[in-house]
């Protein structure tokens, strides 16, 4: 399969290398609006990024000519533009997360009819969360006679002297500032960010941790594809504690303040002054100097429902390689970028096997494909813990 990746930064560069290892370097290309900076993330001897403006579908389509799959591994702001490009190139499409400008509807769904007519597949939201969490939710629901509730719980923990950006500061700030979407009693709604604190039991050695409400793209799609009455997402760990502190200080507010003759939102200023995602060379120095000691990413999905006439609670948790392991697998990668690329690469390989045209999230995939993706991730070092008990 021939693949073209749009966005060759912290995640896109790793994804490109993973796909090149799978399909052959000559069958994989990548582009970025800033090739010089992108090359700082590229591995030695890896695929060389070319200049591509993701806001111009025709530009992307030309660069992706002959590709079977076009992947947007850059900002979700460009999802629709890259989808246009994929249609122009006659290719399948994939991305990592949604923009969700109205906080409710995934913009990729608007392209469903067009991809159906073109006989092509658009698989969206294929990172860790959303992405793997969607697969785990569908897998749990398939094992129940009836599903009442789905709870997505993340742990994002850094043992470091200062927070290290693992994703675009703009995306991080937008997600932290957005009122989390919830699905309760069969209806969508929003709650206050960082509210609803509870204790969730993650597998050992992480144990019981405090988690709070955060925005999760998967909440927008799971109720549309799975029969369920309640869905929510909460996260915990140092990254979330840092976000809560910013919110408490008013730095994530939508209200505007006067700056000279202009009025701006504090969150817009925060995006400007936030540190960039460290390059691999910078990340290695942070680790070597002991400023970053380790980091962990854990993604859990818990389902309440019934099976065989009994009320049950079942869960599936993915524990990703920690930063120390990541530094051996992909020196200089962050503890979020590597797992995100790992999940996206496994789903890229699945796209040609989907056999259905249209735009869809991972939970829409059939059982055989879901299980193939999960097996690949297990073989790649993701540790899965499954629990089930009668209630």
Describe what you observe in this structure:
The mean pLDDT is 93. The protein is globular and about 55 Å long. The chain is an alpha/beta fold and 391 residues long. 34% of the residues lie in helices and 27% in strands. A hairpin with a 2-residue loop joins strand 15 (292-307) and strand 16 (310-319). The strands form four sheets. The protein has a seven-stranded parallel sheet, sandwiched between helices. A seven-stranded mixed sheet has the order 10-11-12-7-15-16-18. The chain has helices spanning 12-23, 35-41, 57-63, 79-89, 112-118, 132-142, 169-177, 218-225, 238-248, 266-273, 280-288, 323-329, 337-350, 367-379, and strands at 3-6, 28-32, 50-51, 69-72, 92-95, 121-123, 146-160, 181-184, 187-190, 198-201, 208-213, 230-236, 257-259, 262-264, 292-307, 310-319, 358-360, 383-390.
What proportion strand?
25-35%
Query: How would the global form be characterised?
Result: globular
Give me the side-by-side strand order of the main sheet: 3-2-1-4-5-6-17
SSE-based structural type: alpha/beta
Mean pLDDT: 93
The biggest beta sheet is recorded as: 7 strands, parallel
**What quaternary form is this?**
single chain
- How many helices? The count is 14
Instruction: List low-pLDDT spans.
Output: none
Fraction of residues in helix:
25-40%
- The counted number of beta strands is 18
Supply Rg.
Answer: 20 Å
How far apart the termini lie comes to 46 Å
């Amino acid at each position: 399969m021939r693949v073209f990746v749009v966005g060759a930064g912290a995640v896109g560069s790793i994804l490109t290398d993973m796909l090149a290892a799978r399909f052959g370097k000559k069958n994989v290309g990548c582009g970025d609006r800033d090739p010089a900076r992108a090359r700082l993330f590229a591995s030695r001897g890896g695929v060389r990024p070319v200049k591509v403006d993701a806001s111009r579908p025709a530009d992307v389509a030309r660069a992706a000519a002959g590709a079977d799959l076009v992947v947007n591994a850059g900002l979700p702001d460009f999802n629709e533009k890259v989808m246009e490009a994929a249609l122009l190139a006659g290719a399948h499409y994939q991305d990592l997360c949604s923009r969700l400008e109205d906080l409710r509807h995934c913009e990729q769904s608007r392209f469903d009819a067009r991809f159906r007519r073109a006989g092509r597949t658009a698989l969206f939201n294929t990172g860790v969360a959303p992405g793997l969490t969607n697969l785990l939710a569908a897998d749990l629901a398939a094992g129940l006679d009836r599903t009442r509730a789905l709870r997505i719980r993340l742990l994002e923990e850094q043992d470091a002297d200062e927070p290290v950006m693992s994703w675009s500061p703009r995306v991080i700030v937008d997600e932290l500032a957005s009122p989390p979407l919830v699905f309760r009693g069969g209806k969508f709604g929003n709650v206050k960010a960082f509210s609803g604190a509870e204790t969730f039991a993650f597998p050992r050695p992480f144990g019981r941790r405090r988690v709070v409400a955060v925005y999760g793209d998967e909440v927008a799609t799971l109720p549309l594809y799975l029969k369920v009455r309640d869905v929510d997402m909460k996260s915990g760990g140092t990254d979330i504690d840092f976000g809560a502190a910013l919110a408490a200080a008013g730095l994530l507010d939508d209200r505007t303040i006067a700056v000279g003759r202009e009025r701006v939102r504090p969150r817009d200023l925060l995006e400007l002054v936030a540190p960039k995602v460290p390059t691999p060379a910078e990340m290695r120095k942070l680790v070597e100097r002991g400023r970053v000691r380790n980091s962990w990413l854990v993604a859990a999905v818990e389902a309440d429902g019934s099976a065989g006439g009994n009320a049950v609670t079942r869960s599936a948790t993915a524990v990703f390689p920690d930063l120390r392991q990541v530094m051996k697998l992909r020196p200089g990668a962050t503890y979020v970028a590597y797992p995100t690329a790992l999940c996206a690469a496994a789903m890229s390989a699945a796209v040609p096997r989907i056999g259905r045209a249209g735009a869809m999230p991972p939970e829409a995939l059939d059982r055989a494909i879901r299980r193939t993706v999960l097996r690949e991730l297990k073989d790649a070092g993701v540790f899965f813990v499954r629990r089930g008990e009668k209630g």
